[in-house]
Write a sequence for this structure.
């Protein structure tokens, strides 16, 4: 028996799911459930988020390209949940143009999720997804992400849960049970989550392909300077120790390594990556709404935003927790920001901390003359904010 599902129905349900992306109680449409093969809200959200992220252009594409605009539109509207007016402002589009571009972006996303090679008029419940096509596309699209956003950190628990959910949805090895084992709370690794997710997914696939494995267990732990992910399978044979050039080469680029082992009926792939503490960014700005965006911008990255709204609060904030970077507005309610910048340069506790002046006042030359490491004009977009933090941090 086949289920009649048109692509237009599927696309409409993708839009509905995006509008309710962060609502775990929203019931997904039947077309979405049948195509993506899950009715769990967390799994559907993970698939939609991964599909959006797969649309991120690589670092070689000009920022003015339409692909950048469509990707940012999806991020702003549905991941960050910004209103249409704010999206229009950030993207430099009229409201009418934004609506047209939104339709194009959703169509593009639906095409990315729609399995290739499937009759557009029907979807068989048992039809296998084109896994080889997914894998090759993801490898190409995710390989440049870490270079594009070097500050990104991976939450190991989230990456592993998402990889397990993706394996289940795609139904690649239905005879193999893939489950999550011990995960250390808060463990992170200095690698983009999309790249690490692909490493984990390929590891699962390699272990599940030997024809005898019935169970795969994933675990993760962190003890400086290394973060460890173990992908273990049983039963297994000592003659079958899976290797992956993709995993080995990707890890070598990021300073990590991979080993394969066999012991007591278990075969395992062990991934080691460097740990990294988050960099503290002290934001000195009385615009609470803007600081809220800064905090949203750094979610999932190697940065943590700490905020004070007045210049006089800087010194107590520094005493509590020394920041790695300071983002300073020059229009503060209690002190002239230029004066505070001068004091930061002179004080022994802050003289070595890079300061980024962020203001609506176009005074880049003055900021650098007074010792600022960089200047960023408001309004601030996420990509520019993160890239400048990276640039200043890495140049220290």
């Amino acid at each position: 028996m086949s289920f009649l599902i048109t692509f237009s129905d599927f696309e409409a349900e993708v839009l509905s799911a995006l509008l309710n992306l962060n609502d775990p109680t929203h019931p997904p449409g039947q077309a979405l459930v049948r195509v993506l093969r899950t009715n769990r809200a967390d799994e559907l959200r993970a698939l939609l988020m991964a599909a959006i992220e797969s649309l991120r252009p690589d670092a070689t594409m000009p920022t003015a390209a339409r692909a950048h605009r469509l990707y940012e539109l999806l991020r702003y509207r549905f991941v960050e949940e910004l209103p249409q007016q704010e999206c229009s402002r950030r993207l430099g589009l009229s409201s009418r143009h934004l609506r047209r571009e939104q339709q194009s972006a959703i169509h593009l996303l639906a095409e990315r999720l729609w399995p290739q090679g499937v009759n557009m008029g029907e979807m068989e419940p048992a039809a296998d997804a084109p896994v080889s096509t997914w894998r090759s596309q993801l490898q190409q699209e995710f390989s440049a992400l870490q270079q594009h956003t070097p500050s990104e950190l991976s939450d190991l628990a989230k990456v592993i849960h998402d990889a397990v959910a993706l394996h289940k949805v795609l139904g690649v090895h239905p005879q193999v049970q893939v489950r999550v084992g011990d995960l250390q709370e808060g463990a992170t690794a200095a690698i983009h989550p999309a790249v690490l997710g692909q490493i984990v997914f390929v590891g699962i696939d390699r272990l599940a392909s030997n024809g005898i494995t019935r169970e795969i267990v994933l675990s993760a732990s962190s003890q400086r300077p290394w973060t460890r992910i173990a992908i273990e399978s049983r039963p297994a044979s000592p003659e079958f120790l899976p290797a992956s050039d993709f995993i080995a080469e990707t890890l070598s680029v990021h300073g990590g390594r991979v080993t394969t082992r066999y012991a007591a009926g278990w075969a395992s792939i062990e991934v080691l990556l460097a740990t990294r503490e988050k960099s503290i960014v002290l934001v000195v700005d009385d615009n609470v709404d803007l600081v809220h965006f800064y905090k949203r911008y750094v979610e999932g990255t190697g940065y943590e935003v700490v905020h004070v709204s007045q210049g006089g609060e800087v010194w107590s904030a520094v005493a509590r927790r020394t920041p790695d970077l300071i983002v300073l507005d020059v229009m503060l309610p209690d002190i002239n920001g230029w004066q505070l910048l001068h004091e930061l340069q002179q004080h022994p506790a802050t003289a070595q901390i890079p300061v980024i002046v962020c203001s609506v006042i176009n005074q880049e030359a003055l900021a650098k003359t007074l010792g600022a490491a960089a200047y960023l004009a408001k309004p601030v977009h996420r990509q520019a904010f993160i890239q400048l933090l990276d640039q200043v941090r890495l140049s220290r």
Remarks:
- The first helix runs from residue 7 to 19.
- The two ends are 63 Å apart (CA to CA).
- The CA atoms of residues 61 and 347 lie 42 Å apart.
